[in-house]
Write a sequence for this structure.
């Protein structure tokens, strides 16, 4: 098993970061149940308690991984489950 210099081993990355079908299904769930979409205010996935900056799992520069809905979300997006990361 090859270990990367930083971040998670690929095997440890959430399924949705490796499987686009799972990712888009979970994203749909976030849209339907929590109105996930573009943020127009200060509350964004990029500063949400549940937005994980997973390293080594193929996230784009403008993406974080949502721990609640388990999908790759835009740092500039938001949903109804947003919570302050400093709580
Ligand atoms: S819970 Fe947080 S990270 Fe997940 S979609 Fe909602 S705002 Fe984004």
């Amino acid at each position: 098993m090859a270990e990367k210099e930083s971040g998670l081993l690929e095997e440890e990355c959430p399924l949705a970061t490796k499987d686009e079908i799972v990712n888009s299904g979970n994203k749909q769930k976030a849209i339907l149940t929590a109105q996930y979409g573009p943020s127009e205010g200060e509350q964004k996935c990029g500063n949400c308690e549940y937005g994980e900056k997973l390293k080594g799992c193929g996230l784009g520069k403008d993406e974080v991984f949502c721990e609640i809905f388990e999908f790759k979300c835009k740092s500039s997006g938001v949903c109804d489950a947003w919570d302050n990361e400093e709580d």
